[in-house]
Amino acid sequence: MKKIIYPGSFDPLTFGHLDVLERAVKIFDKVIVAVAGNSEKTPLFSFEERIEMLRIAAKDNPKIEVDSFNGLLVEYASKKGASVILRGLRALSDFEYEFQMALTNRKLYENIETIFMMPSESYSYLSSRMIKEIASMGGDVRDFVPDYVAARLKARIQNRK
Ligand code: PNS
Question: 35: which of 16, 27, 65, 68 fits an S-S bond (Cβ 3.0–4.6 Å)?
């Protein structure tokens, strides 16, 4: 069984993430979407909220498992019996960080490979950070995220004001 881990902050998930996820599902038997709990970034949405939104996105697909992890990604992947990590790659600007992370992870755990998939070019400019910025300024983000994410963004930002 070909199993792959798709890790990230998913704060919040975007159409770009979902595009990569759909592509992975076509190739792998099981895709474990893993929300990182101990990222250095301060998330807008809690661990539970990010997991819940991903579960809504994945609800009709038995090939997708939504999970979470704390600590090292490679240790988590190995515990889940997965030897491949999936990362989405958008533009050249992602490359350096991803390159560093993939090689560091390989150094930590040589049996785990990282593969990259490109989202559709129509999403290649999307980032969770920019979507949060647009939402925080009252902009419409429905072209970038599913409706249930847009609604949660709006509610979260209104609560902050
Ligand atoms: O969506 P992001 O924020 O780009 O995802 C980054 C993430 C969560 C995949 C990365 O920070 C990570 O793997 N964190 C877990 C801790 C870890 O294993 N660090 C060493 C990686 S070099």
Answer: 68
